[in-house]
Design a protein that fits this description.
Layout: E1 12-13, E2 17-21, H1 27-34, H2 37-40, H3 51-61, E3 67-73, E4 79-89, E5 94-101, H4 110-126, E6 130-136, H5 140-148, E7 152-163, E8 166-176
Parallel strand pairs: 5-6
Antiparallel strand pairs: 1-2, 2-3, 3-4, 4-5, 6-8, 7-8
Helix pairs in contact: 1-3
Length: 182
């Protein structure tokens, strides 16, 4: 598959989760966790104050050069998070992965389960050779997820991104296709 044309977003499944394309019907479930300051503490988007904010976020997730999934609990059909590829570099077959889970579902392995499936899809179906992940220095949960999945810490990027006029250093993790064993 060529990176010149982004693929349709396929549904992916794990034992507990369905990962499927994000749609406007997901707005209320997404708003529930996107309006939680604890969930958005380490994101580069602001806490949602209205369902309109969530609608804009969904539009962003469906925009050009993003491959995004809603993370859905099979048991309840509730959207409990998101996972997406962005910053696609076609010439280098590289992308960055981002993910988030509702606070109610933290520490239950859902992020690791979902991201594992998405990483595998990126390597085997999209043809990526390198996938990067970043997180703020004190975001230990995201660091743990990436490390569990075999992503290797590469370096700290100084003043890498800003949120609300504050610049943050980020930890950069990488996984290469020839090293992944998902």
């Amino acid at each position: 598959m060529s990176l010149d044309i982004l693929p349709d977003i396929p549904s992916l499944q794990t034992s507990r989760l369905l990962l499927r394309e994000v749609n406007s019907d997901d707005a209320f479930d997404i708003f529930e966790f996107a309006s939680d300051r604890q969930v958005t503490k380490y994101t580069f988007w602001n806490t949602h104050r209205s369902i309109e904010d969530t609608g804009k976020f969904i539009s962003f997730l469906k925009s050009f050069d993003i491959i995004a999934w809603a993370i859905v609990l099979k048991e309840t059909e509730q959207v409990i998070g998101y996972c997406f590829f962005h910053s696609l570099e076609r010439d280098h077959k590289k992308a960055e992965i981002s993910f988030g889970i509702s606070r109610e579902h933290w520490d239950q392995g859902y992020a690791t389960e979902a991201v594992r499936e998405v990483l595998s899809y990126g390597f085997t179906k999209v043809g990526l050779r390198r996938i990067e992940g970043t997180c703020m220095l004190d975001n230990l949960a995201s660091s743990r997820v990436m490390e569990k999945l075999g992503m290797k810490f590469e370096k700290v990027i100084q003043n890498a991104r800003q949120k609300n006029s504050v610049y943050y250093d980020l930890k950069l993790y990488i996984l290469s296709s020839h090293k992944h064993t998902l």
